[in-house]
Amino acid sequence: MNRTLLRPKLLVDSLNFHINDYSLLTSVYGMKIDGIIGYSFFKRYVVKINYDTQTIEVWEPGEMKIPKSGLLLRPVINNIPVFNADVADNTAISSRFYFDTGAGLCILLSEKFVKDSSILKRGKKITVTQAEGIGGKKPMKITTVKGVRIGPYKFRKVPAYVFDDEFNVTSYPSLGGLVGNDIFRRFNLIIDYGNRLIHLLPNTHFNDPFDYSYTGLGIYVVDGQVLVEDVIEGSPAEKAGIQPDDIIVSVGTNFSGNILAYRALLQVPGVRLKIVVKRKEELIMLNLKVASIL
């Protein structure tokens, strides 16, 4: 309680630090994650996030000149900002969502919201998968929605996760879910919680394709090796013969052992890849065809 965060040219005092185990996030991204900086920090400053230059600027609070172009949001802020967005598929729904740059996905919907709103078309292709985060691993369903609109900005065929929100973290029926960083990284952001504003300006990533790939493969960095921990039943990974506890030696012609490089290669729907795994000291070559959620 009441500790200080030190960064070059920046001292933030009177913070409460929550101690947690970030080993799962470390293994997911293949780099050491020591913690998460959240609302208690952001509310004290004006923060600019530039995804083009991969920089974060921290400014003292006050009035800042906001570009005339782009979109100015006036979120409701209660530790997490809440804003309005439109989601369309079987029907078009306007709802409120958490603004969550810490979520590495496009949009997350609660099952209750999906059921009560009838947002998804009947017979919609839904794929069983798994997501990882600070709360651990959680089974999810993934599909696509016809469109997501934030102000004047529209995105088509957007990947959408649907989950059983047993603890109501999405505050349904007040909210429909959350919008995550695979949407927000397409903008450069100005976040000013003191003046209750978030500014979005499209950047060079705005038209990046969405990730529709599906393998059913859960890989993590463990003791410096890329380890298979999860294989979803009936998935392309299971059909390829990949098993839990296999060590990924290579994907295609890439023998780097870099989990992010391997994931990038596994994000091309329809591609056929030769994967070399180490299983009980034996090297085995397997053939995997990456599926699509579309």
Q: How would you characterize the overall build of this protein?
A:
The protein has 294 residues and is mainly beta. Among the domains are: 71-184, Cathepsin D, subunit A, domain 1 (Beta Barrel); 213-292, Pdz3 Domain, CATH 2.30.42.10. It contains 6 helices and 22 strands. It has helices spanning 23-29, 39-42, 111-117, 181-184, 236-239, 259-265, and strands at 3-7, 10-15, 46-50, 55-59, 71-73, 76-78, 80-88, 92-99, 107-110, 127-133, 136-150, 153-163, 177-179, 187-192, 197-202, 213-214, 217-222, 225-231, 247-251, 272-279, 282-289, 291-292. The strands form 6 sheets. Strands 7-8-13-9-12-11 form a 6-stranded mixed β-barrel. A 5-stranded antiparallel β-sheet has the order 4-3-14-15-5, with no helix packed on it. Strands 19-20-21 form a 3-stranded antiparallel β-sheet. Strand 20 and strand 21 form a beta hairpin. The longest helix has 7 residues, at 23-29. The N and C termini lie far apart (48 Å). The model has no long low-confidence stretch (mean pLDDT 94).
